[in-house]
Task: inverse folding
């Protein structure tokens, strides 16, 4: 639970060093350490206690000692020194996505702006455009960043919040007298961002449950404590509402507190048509409660089959349930492989053997080792002369591995002119080619769309990676004609990626559903740079489920031999079309 706290301090140290104009390698070391600590699926405190901090990628003796200092004191001497040197207002500005330290410093020194509200007003009045190196576009981007920051303050990525919720549930099961317990709310629906955590329980001793809940180590503040509802704020800043409900209405309460609001209204309306009242306390005919112990009873009362939580958004699921056409959503256990993992051949921290070992631990059967291409120097892109070395290493591994298999892949960069970062004679050597945009985000909708369209028309490209380029709470999607992207994907039999990294989830659920309905195949990859990040695969499956996707829509449900054959067949088909 300390991971976010340690990562945040490291991230702020990096920002303050950048304002000072410090050594870029030192800045990058803190940034990388923050990213890797935040992405850990184990508690950094446990690693410290076991003396294993240096096993975290990017953590040497010096940073390991600094982590220990934060865990022991709650802060870092280096961080406190930097805060004394640099005005605290500048740190607030650095929370704005896309507003860099150098520009923040100029605004502070030249205009005396000290708050985000003053900054927003100055942009609207076009006062920043008069500064050297600024202009109307800069003001527009800062305003977009402020809007993103406000959204970020309200909601957090699912991938961050879900582990906290699961930890709370685990502790309550272990320490308190709960009988039934479930996470509800937008987490249960697997929305990409979450405002708070809702937990439902039944118990014969509600007061004891609440007493233990408020004393849990991650609780920062008790907002409300009662016998049936208690609200707290965690040290991570998010609110948690714990409700103890009567076992006789547990299913009705679970349905109600799972939501969404629009879905619940539709269920209540269907109930009214049948002379029923449906709420969190059960299903009522007049004054008599006639059901509600199980969630299925709520749906059955209005003539519907049980609807999976991921679909409960009032986007046609009621009508599909009535017509008997609800999709059989792809199962979390039906995904056999992770299509997009980076290794030590580029900027990943793990060897191919370590990646395979983690895949085995997750129960996966195959992994696509898709390292960056040569032009992406900042990410240690693989030069052409090292590709055959990687290919041979993967072939040798596959010969000796009886279970997990690897695909020799690449995440090839789509360049500014739409060309790819490797020539075709190199691309044809790979088992799997994912083409992605990593630069030139401000080119405009037509140019960005055309770059992706051109990449899909390449006969050796199997998939487009993180198609819209968004980072939740940090960077908005770049402008694309998604209708054209999806139609071209269908025409060229190119898959679109659901990037499962918790800050991306790109494609999102809306676009995933549009792709599915157009007959476009989807491929899920974690984009993992450390092995722990491979555990985010389930977040990509959640996006697919929210997008109404079934097993046949997702290429990851193929076994290794089927998937490899599919990839070869796509290249053959594309080459035939080209000729």
Result:
């Amino acid at each position: 639970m300390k991971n976010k706290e340690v990562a945040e301090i490291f991230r702020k140290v990096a920002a303050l060093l950048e304002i000072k104009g410090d050594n870029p390698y030192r800045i990058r070391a803190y940034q990388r350490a923050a990213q890797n600590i935040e992405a850990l699926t184990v508690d950094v405190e446990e690693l410290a206690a076991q003396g294993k901090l240096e096993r975290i990628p990017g953590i040497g003796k010096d940073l390991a000692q600094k982590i220990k200092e934060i865990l022991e004191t709650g802060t870092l001497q280096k961080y406190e020194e930097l805060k004394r040197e640099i005005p605290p207002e500048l740190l607030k500005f650095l929370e704005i996505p896309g507003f860099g330290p150098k520009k923040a410093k100029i605004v502070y020194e030249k205009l005396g702006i000290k708050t985000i509200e003053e900054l927003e007003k100055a942009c609207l009045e076009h006062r920043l455009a008069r500064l050297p190196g600024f202009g109307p576009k800069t003001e527009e981007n800062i305003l977009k960043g402020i809007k993103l920051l406000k959204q970020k303050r309200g909601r957090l990525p699912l991938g961050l919040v879900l582990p906290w919720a699961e930890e709370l549930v685990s502790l309550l099961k272990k320490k308190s007298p709960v009988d039934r317990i479930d996470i509800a709310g937008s987490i249960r629906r697997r929305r990409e961002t979450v405002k708070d955590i809702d937990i439902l329980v039944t118990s014969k001793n509600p007061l004891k449950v609440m007493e233990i809940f408020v004393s849990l180590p991650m609780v920062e503040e008790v907002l409300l404590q009662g016998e049936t509802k208690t609200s707290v704020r965690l040290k991570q800043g998010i609110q948690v509402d714990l409700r103890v409900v009567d076992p006789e209405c547990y299913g009705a309460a679970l349905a109600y507190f799972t939501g969404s609001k629009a879905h619940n209204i539709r269920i209540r309306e269907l109930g009214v048509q049948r002379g029923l009242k449906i709420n969190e306390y059960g299903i009522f005919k007049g004054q008599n409660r006639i059901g509600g112990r199980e969630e299925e009873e709520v749906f059955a009362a209005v003539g519907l089959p049980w609807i999976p939580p991921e679909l409960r958004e009032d986007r046609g699921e009621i009508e599909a349930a009535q017509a008997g056409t609800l999709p059989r959503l792809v199962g979390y256990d039906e995904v056999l492989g992770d299509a997009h993992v980076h290794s030590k051949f580029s900027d990943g921290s793990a060897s191919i053997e370590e990646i395979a070992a983690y895949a085995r631990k997750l129960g996966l059967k195959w992994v696509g080792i898709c390292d960056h291409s040569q032009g992406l120097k900042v990410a240690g892109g693989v030069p052409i002369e090292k590709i055959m070395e990687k290919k041979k290493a993967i072939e040798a591994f596959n010969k000796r591995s009886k279970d997990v298999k690897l695909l020799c892949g690449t995440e090839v960069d789509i360049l500014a002119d739409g060309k790819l970062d490797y020539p075709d004679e190199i691309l044809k050597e790979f088992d799997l080619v994912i083409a992605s945009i990593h630069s030139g985000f401000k080119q405009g909708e037509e140019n960005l769309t055309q770059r992706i369209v051109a990449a899909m028309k390449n006969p050796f490209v199997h998939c487009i990676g993180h198609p819209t380029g968004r980072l939740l709470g940090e960077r908005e999607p770049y402008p694309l004609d998604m209708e054209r992207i999806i139609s071209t994907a269908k025409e060229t039999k190119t898959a679109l990626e659901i990037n499962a990294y918790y800050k991306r989830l790109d494609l999102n659920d809306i676009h995933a559903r549009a792709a599915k309905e157009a007959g476009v195949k989807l491929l899920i990859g974690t984009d993992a740079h450390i092995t722990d990040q491979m555990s985010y695969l389930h977040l990509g499956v959640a996006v697919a489920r929210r997008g109404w996707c079934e097993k046949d829509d997702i290429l990851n449900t193929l076994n290794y031999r089927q998937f490899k054959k599919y990839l070869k067949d796509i290249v053959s088909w594309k080459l035939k079309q080209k000729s």
Observations:
- The chain has 24 helices and 17 strands.
